[in-house]
Amino acid sequence: MQPLVGQDLTHTQPRLMHWLATATAVSGVVAAASFVQPPDATATTARAGKATYETKSAARPAAAPDPRRVTFPVDCGPNRLDVVHKVSGDLDLDGTTETVAVVRCHTETGTPPSGVFVLARPTDPKAPPRVVATLLAPSQKLSVQALTLQGGEISATLLGYSTLDVPRCCPDVRKNTKWQWRDGKFLQTELPAEGTTEGA
């Protein structure tokens, strides 16, 4: 094979040190580029097997309103207010999470009436959640035995008393109630009464 013109000239032949210096410079640029990512980025695996990046703020869902930070419109006098049940979900399908909280005044005996309230996140992240709806007021003299949330429908089992003569420790009436957001408000539906709780 005949040498090409100029191939035998010393200054045109690549030297080993020249290639090593070039490779070192390129690897340094690649390494530096791998650190140039958003400060809150996390790596995820893309479908093609390569790493992509997304910010934590986009991946982290907003927390549900915490009932422990709320001042409820319930007067317990010297006793504390207990949060006995809570469920969370998007009740009005606006893309945000609400919390339904059941509260009652603390007592060592009896079954004090419950209040059921809907909580929403405030516009100021430092402010406590807001009470946006009262589903059951303590003045209705009912206590909540169970609370569930499914498909935007809030269901509760309520206990009460048939007469004033029934001891306050032992409710004798049970009924099932549900609430659902429709037409800009919570509509309550009461299922057929189950009669008394005696023997239950």
Write the layout of secondary structure elements.
Blueprint: H1 16-33, E1 41-45, E2 51-55, H2 56-59, E3 81-89, E4 98-105, E5 115-120, E6 130-136, E7 143-150, E8 153-160, E9 173-182, E10 185-190
Antiparallel strand pairs: 1-2, 3-4, 4-5, 5-6, 7-8, 8-9, 9-10
Protein name: Lipoprotein
Region (Disordered): 41-67
Biased composition (Low complexity): 41-65
Describe the structure.
This is Lipoprotein. Residues 41-65 have a biased composition (Low complexity). The chain is mainly beta and 200 residues long. It has a domain at 67-191. It contains two helices and ten strands; from the N terminus they run H-E-E-H-E-E-E-E-E-E-E-E. It has helices at 16-33, 56-59, and strands at 41-45, 51-55, 81-89, 98-105, 115-120, 130-136, 143-150, 153-160, 173-182, 185-190. A four-stranded antiparallel sheet has the order 3-4-5-6, with no helix packed on it. A four-stranded antiparallel sheet has the order 7-8-9-10, with no helix packed on it. Strands 1-2 form a two-stranded antiparallel sheet. The longest helix has 18 residues, at 16-33. The model is unreliable at 1-14 and 18-59 (pLDDT under 50).
